[in-house]
Design goal:
By secondary structure, the chain is mainly alpha-helical. It has seven helices and three strands, in the order αααβββαααα. A three-stranded antiparallel β-sheet has the order 1-3-2.
């Protein structure tokens, strides 16, 4: 729940009208990639910067991922337009939150993550094993202490 708290806190700074903001950009990409809306759902926008800026819930436009069945462009300028969704439409569609979607993604791909972690561990252990073999194969007569013993034995 600590992660969820961090995500919820960062989401408070989401500004749909400021796509260059790094928090907004990150959240927009996350919502697009995971086909989700907010941390827990569309209601998270009630506490984000959208509502803090004086916009009422009724006038609020959410990102298009909040209502995939119905989204419209927010401007006629195609280059700068983004898909938006009226708040009441998101309320009707009950968009899924990103936290649950990310957990589902991690759960679905757990075997892959474990496989990659195991491969990294095996590679690290092989590196240690090779280093030990190399260390043991070096001629012990070339060490400083052994040279001193050899010199005293030969004289």
């Amino acid at each position: 729940t600590e992660v969820k708290g961090f995500l919820t806190e960062s989401f408070k700074h989401y500004e749909i009208d400021n796509p260059d903001d790094h928090i907004t950009h990150t959240w927009s990409k996350t919502m697009k990639d995971f086909d989700c809306c907010g941390v827990n759902g569309y209601r998270d926008f009630n506490v984000s910067m959208i509502s803090v800026n004086g916009t009422t819930v009724d006038d609020m436009n959410l990102p298009g991922t909040c209502c995939p069945e119905f989204s419209v462009k927010n401007s006629t300028d195609v280059k700068n337009s983004i898909d938006v969704c009226p708040y009441e439409q998101a309320e009707k569609e009950r968009a899924k939150g990103c936290f649950d979607q990310i957990l589902l993604y991690l759960d679905d791909n757990l075997a892959i993550f474990i496989g990659i972690a195991s491969a990294v561990i095996v590679i690290e252990l092989l590196g240690i094993y090779c280093a030990l073999i190399l260390h043991n194969s070096i001629d012990p007569m070339n060490t400083g202490e052994d040279k001193a013993k050899r010199y005293t034995l030969s004289t």
